[in-house]
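for the writeup, i need someone to sanity check this before i put it in the appendix. the sequnce is what the collaborator sent (i think, or maybe the updated version? ugh). structure was predicted straight from it, no edits. if anything looks off just tell me and ill rerun, i have time this weekend
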Amino acid sequence: MIIIKNSEQLQSMRESANILSDVFKLLEDNVQIGITTKKLDKLAHEFILKCGAIPSFLGYNGFPATLCTSIDEEVVHGFPSSRKLIEGNIIGIDCGVLHKGFHSDCARTYAIGAVSEEKKRLMDVTKESFFEGIKGLKAGSRLGDIGAGVQNHVEENGMSVVRALVGHGIGQDLHEDPSVPNYGVRGRGIRLKAGMTIAIEPMVNLGTHLVDIADDGWTVLTKDRLPSAHYENTIILLSDGVEIITVK
């Protein structure tokens, strides 16, 4: 069931997203050569609690951390650990915040030191594909318009979108209807309505779109072990466009 939020609920989601935006500002200042992903997780966890909020991911279906930290060929859902970031890595960081009963969700991919040109391009195309997905989006658009925008941009650049994982509605539950694929056909799918809140999250692979699941049961890996990048924002559908409420 798709839940349309009222003005009070939307304001609570904005407040949740503001906290999450500050989490990512903190992470940006600390994502560097030599830091462990466990340390990044600790920083985010302590900050969220200090803000009087709750980490959305910690304990969700048994997930053991505040952040998903996914390095190079890890697509999403990587566990924070004692692994240190080294020059040339790219790392996708995904985080959610629960505040006043509402969730927000966001992901970014960061370069660690100097990275290869193909990794830089992968990161750029992934971010660009999000904005292609929301281009012209408003109440009355079709769900397939999002996926078509993402997919077309990615494939025009010789990369692939992950199909086994998708974006989602978000609100009082971290994952609500509808599912939001990063592929599709314009003019297909449900009509979007003002007050809908969704997390759009392109997951883009340098090679094949196929993925594996690691032995931990969570970490998603590219099938060919080529790098992957992730970019996500929580948005509100408006009558005349969209409002991005997480980090711009």
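The longest strand covers residues 90-99. The chain has four helices and 15 strands.
thx in advance!!
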